[in-house]
Amino acid sequence: MSPWGCYVHVPWCRAQCPYCGFYIVPGERALAWEPFVDRVLAEHRARAPAFAGDAHTVYLGGGTPSRLPPEALARLLTNLPTVPGAERSCEANPEDLTDAWLQGAIEAGIGRISLGVQTFVPHVARRLGRAHTSAQATDAARRLARAPLRSWSIDLIFAVPGQTLDDLRSDLDTILSLGAPHVSIYGLTVEPGTPFASARRRGRLPDVDPDLWRDMYDQIVSVLGGAGLQRYEVSSFARAGHRCDHNALYWADRPYMGLGPGAHGYAPDGTRWHNTPDLRGYLAADTAPGRIEHPSGEVAAMDLLVAGLRGIDGVTLSRLEARTGHRPDPRIVEILIEGGLLIPDPARLALTSRGFPLADAVVDRLVRALRPS
Ligand SMILES: C[S@@+](CC[C@H](N)C(=O)[O-])C[C@H]1O[C@@H](n2cnc3c(N)ncnc32)[C@H](O)[C@@H]1O
Ligand code: SF4
Asked: What single DSSP character describes residue 266?
C-alpha cells in the first residue's frame, strides 16, 4: 500500500502579505471555524474511498492555521485517521504562538510546527509586509525549542529586494543560535496577481541580481551545512531525524489528499483535483467545488520531474516510465551528466551540488526532452 499524506488548507490570515500568492481570506474577525472543520471532515469522508488505509502524515497549512483555536485542531486531528506514529504538522505565525496556544496544539496531537518567520531583519520584514516583530519571532522559536514536540522548523525567504548578503547571514546565525532542527528557505518568487507583481510592473520592486541570488544560495548551503543541517531538498535543510515526512511524500510522487478551499490533491489512480479558492462557496456546497484532471502520460511525467527532482533522492527512471510511459531523451541526460548537473547514475535522475541551485533550469531541460518510451 502506497503511503499518502493529508493536507488541510486553512485560509484565514490577519492581512495579505504583498508577496503571497496562496489562497487566503484576510482580516475576517469572526472565524467560522466550526462549519469549516465540519466541511473539511465531510470532504475527507467523500474522498477516502479513493485512498487505501489511513494517512501517513497530516499537514495543516495555509493561510494561517495558527489562527484556529486548539479545539479546532483537536477536532480535525481526532477525525482524520492516521497510521500509528504518523507525523502531524501545523504551520504557525509568530504572533499567534503563545504558550497557551502551543500547549493546546500539542494536546490536540500536533507533533511538528513550522514557524513562518521569513526574516528576523527589520528592514527586510518591512519590505515583506510581515505582521510580527523580530522579538516575537525569536520568542516564538524559543518556545518551540522548549516544547515537547517531535520536531519544529523555521521558514525563511531570501533574495528579497534590498536584502544584503549580511542580512541573510544574520538570519542564518539567528536560526542557528535558536537551535532550529529544520529550516525551509525559499528564494522570493514574484507571484502573478500579488501586490509585488504590480509593484514590479510599475518599477517599484527591483529585480534581484542573479549573481547575488547565487551567492545567497551558496551562503545558505555552506552555513547551514557547516552547522549540521543537511540539504535534503533544494530549499529544505534538516538535522538527522528531523526531515519533514509530509513534504518528502510530495517529492517521492506519493498521493496526497488536499482538503479545503484552494487545496489540490493527487489520488492513487493519478487523478488530480483543484478545489476552487472560495471559502464561502466551499462552506455552502455539499461537495468541494473545483476542477478534476486526468493528466496525460506526458503531463504526469512533467509533474513527477518537477516535484521529484527537487529532493536529494531524485527520480528513479524505472518508476517514471512505469507511471507515465515517458522518459527524457538519454542524449540530453548525458549532456546534463557531463555538465556536472546530474549524478552519473543510469537508474536515477538526481541533482549534484552543482545542479541544486540550477534545479529549475535542469527540470525545464528534462521536461522538454520527454519522449514516449
Ligand atoms: C503560504 S506560507 C503559509 C505560512 C504562514 N502563513 C506564513 O506566513 O509564514 C508558507 C511558506 O511559503 C513560503 N512562501 C510564500 N510565498 C512565497 C513567495 N512568494 N516566495 C517564496 N516563498 C514563499 C514562505 O516561506 C512561507 O513560510
Ligand atoms: S505569507 Fe502567510 S500570513 Fe502572509 S498572506 Fe501568505 S499565508 Fe497569510
From this structure: E
Give the long-range contacts of residues 217-223, CB within 8 A, separation 24 or more: 217/158, 217/187, 217/357, 218/357, 219/165, 219/168, 219/169, 219/172, 220/158, 220/168, 220/172, 220/185, 221/353, 221/356, 223/169, 223/172, 223/173, 223/176
Q: What does each C-alpha distance from 337 to 101, 180, 363 come to in angstroms? A: 49, 34, 13
Protein residue with its CA nearest to atom 2 in ligand 2: 63
Amino acid at 319: R
Is the domain spanning 5-250 CATH 3.40.920.10? The answer is no
- Which residues sit with their C-beta closer than 6 Å to ligand 1? 19-22, 62, 64, 91, 93, 116, 118, 155, 157, 186, 188-189, 191
Cα–Cα nearest to 27, from 13, 38, 37: 13
pTM: 0.97
Q: Which of 9, 12, 22, 95 to mutate to test the pocket of ligand 1 (most atoms within 8 A of CB)?
A: 22
Distance from residue 20's CA to the centre of ligand 1 (Å):
7
| Domain range summary for the chain, segments of one domain joined by + | 5-250, 296-373
Question: The domain 296-373: what is its CATH number?
Answer: 1.10.10.920
* 279-312 residue pLDDT tens: 999 999 888 889 999 999 999 999 999 999 999 9
The CA angle 264-7-81, to the nearest 5 degrees, is: 130
**Phi, psi angles (nearest 5°) of residue 79:** -110, 5
Which cell goes with 293? 484532471
pLDDT digits 0-9 by tens, 74-107: 999 999 999 999 999 999 999 999 999 999 999 9
Ligand 1 centroid vs 115 CA: distance in angstroms?
A: 10
Amino acid code (one letter) for 328: P
